[in-house]
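[Meeting: bench + compute handoff]

Bench side (C.D.) handed over the final construct sequence. Compute side (W.E.) agreed to return the predicted structure before the next meeting so the bench team could plan truncations. Sequence as handed over:
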Amino acid sequence: MTLPSNFGRAFDLSGLGKTPAASPAPSVGKQVTAANLASEFVTLSKTKVVIVLCWSSRSPESLTVLDILGKLQATDGDKWVLGSVNVDAEAQVATALQVRTVPYAIALVGEQIIPLFEQSYPEAQIRAVIDKVLSIAAEQGLGSPVEEVMEPEEEEAFAALEAADYPRAEAAYKKLLDRRPNDQFAKLGLAQTQLLIRTKGKDLEVFAKEASAQPKNLDLQIQCADCEMMAGTVDAAFNRLLQCVRDFGGEEQARAKTHLLDLFLLVDPADARLVKARSALASALF
């Protein structure tokens, strides 16, 4: 499996200075500041992989990625450490890390920065990137290698996603599901890929205005919900389609319900937002 084109570029942090700074601690990961980046996180990278996510409260996508990384780190235990940088509060750190946009993820391995990605990705892709970083680190004597067991169709899908060839990725996941119809990873990958296809080149702000002006246009409501989902505003997407289920009848209600169920596939079954939406859907239908 190949990684994003910017994966593997390394920059030395040995000359980074220390400037005291204070900012509100984020709810996920350990707060990275100008005061502790070199002394704590770079030093820690000598013995353990450190993943750092640069985010902003103005970017819902970056907050979604931060939540995903927090979930993955909790699953992996002490295999790696998650650091988070609020770029609005830590401009000096953002400059030192050459942050151009958020979300922006890097790895610290052996006091070196490895840029990972600078856009939002589905959880499955982020999982694959983290596993690759852990494998690279293991080759340098940090931790144990991660055993990667991937089906050929998964390899093809990841390569296509990294090349932004979403139709090819969709076809690969469908091939895998033809062979393994109960593969939950493939179902999730297909749902995420199809969302990328449906939202490519679409502006949430534009669709939000049009959907607000035409509440009885189901196509607009569905497209807007897709854009909201892609932006990480899960509640907004669910509530929009739940309202459609309530407002429409017959075939249109069935379409709204089916699309809502498709979006449900993109959220962890234990997520409180999903549990609430499922209950609301049942109430709306019965």
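W.E. noted at the follow-up: The longest strand covers residues 49-55. C.D. will use this when planning the next construct.
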